[in-house]
Specification:
The protein is built from three helices and no strands. By secondary structure, it is mainly alpha-helical. The protein is flat and about 55 Å long.
Amino acid sequence: MHVAPVGGTAVQDHVALAEIELCGDLIIAASAADEDRLSLESIDEVLKVSQARTYERDHQQTRDADL
């Protein structure tokens, strides 16, 4: 039998953890929704798509200005 050593050898995949959190957010939103399915707009809102696009656009403009 193989037992994992004690002492913090666990590896965290931050991308996987973020994806799991987003899935959880979608599940919570879907369970609280009145309709059978979430609309695309609702999904974007839960996933904060517009905030991510604004952040990306602002940082691209900053990078362009630095060139």
